[in-house]
């Protein structure tokens, strides 16, 4: 009798895992909120999905009540209970439902990976925005191929729908349990409600979910181990990438060069200033990157005009040309060093080097002209950051009095002559200096622009622990070499590119 009750109790406990699978399909439907409105999903669920589920479950229950005397009644599947006349149409509908459910899972995966990558918790991947209006509609080729390979591996490895159902059930109930725990934090931290309310919420819903979770864990060896193994693998990847990225960023910030060091070098920076514009790509939006001092230490010459360029992506479809560049000075005017932050939307296409060079030089010229006039006619916005005055300048303005840098292709050939033959009367030293600075900028542009890409690497310092060596020297280095680089690097001409690397020992 005791063995019978124990077996019955275990069977009822394990049946909770089967009951859990009944809600997984309808739960996946709500992942499509990024593609459909809430009202459309409510209408579809009320008038189509819910009646279909009720009819299907009632039909299966009726079949089980009539054939419960079979020896293999506990193995009766859904398609056995479907009449033979409509079995093929039901199978076709099930395949279409699986396609819709998989699409919801794929969309959710894309969104999570993009957010993790933006937070520095996942290696950089290619993100393709499929909509110009909705920011959340994206496509990630690498993740799509990874999901396909994982699906094939699980299908070929299990060859059993029961094991795959056990894996899906544990994954779904784990998501629900984690969501309940995080929701309690939202109640306290975001909604500023009483902590007692959050505890009541987590105890009420968490008790039911913990029940289903324990029932799914019983089937750990029958396929439920797959989501746990995959979660541990992705957790290790995310931890290694986040830790390495954090160490690299901290090293970049700690090794920034102070403005006092730059001032001590003098206007010539202690070296020979050659003709041309040196464009240094950096991820820092303030301060002087360590790669610049590393370059000056190892090379005897540098360009007469230096621009620290930082390219940022913003969560809008397009950034207008009048708001593209955020420009400012680094150091005194005689040093001819500028900082430029170029902002691009997720649907913007990076321009070629000629067009980008023209817009960048025109924005710097606008900065010089606005300082000369002591006004902000073309300045859209001003930002003060670390004693640096950054301004958003429109590059399409044609109201350039006296000294001009043209933007149109047909006017580009006569820009130099217009600068040199300007008949503007300069009545103050400031205007004279501004005119001389603009002429030097134009001469530097005619001499050419060199693109300098700075790469910083991290290595575990001598005496570090074994785990730290593995994480930094092997794990993070492997992910860095196999992750996608910045998109702007593809638009830079290789003939004018110089790559400079630095190694930080952390």
TrEMBL record:
Gene Ontology molecular function terms on file = potassium ion transmembrane transporter activity
Highest taxon above the source species: Eukaryota
Q: Which GO terms describe its cellular component?
A: plasma membrane
Q: Where is the K+ potassium transporter C-terminal domain?
A: 276-505
Major subcellular site: membrane
> Could you list the residue ranges that cross the membrane?
12-31, 43-65, 86-106, 170-189, 195-213, 225-244
Q: Which UniProt keywords apply?
A: Ion transport, Membrane, Potassium, Potassium transport, Transmembrane, Transmembrane helix, Transport
Record domain K+ potassium transporter integral membrane: where: 2-263
Q: Does the keyword Electron transport apply?
A: no
Give its localization.
Cell membrane
How does this protein lie in the membrane? Multi-pass membrane protein
Q: What's this protein's family per the entry?
A: Belongs to the HAK/KUP transporter (TC 2.A.72.3) family.
Q: What is the official name of this protein in its record?
A: Potassium transporter
**Biological source species:** Linum tenue
UniProt lineage: Eukaryota, Viridiplantae, Streptophyta, Embryophyta, Tracheophyta
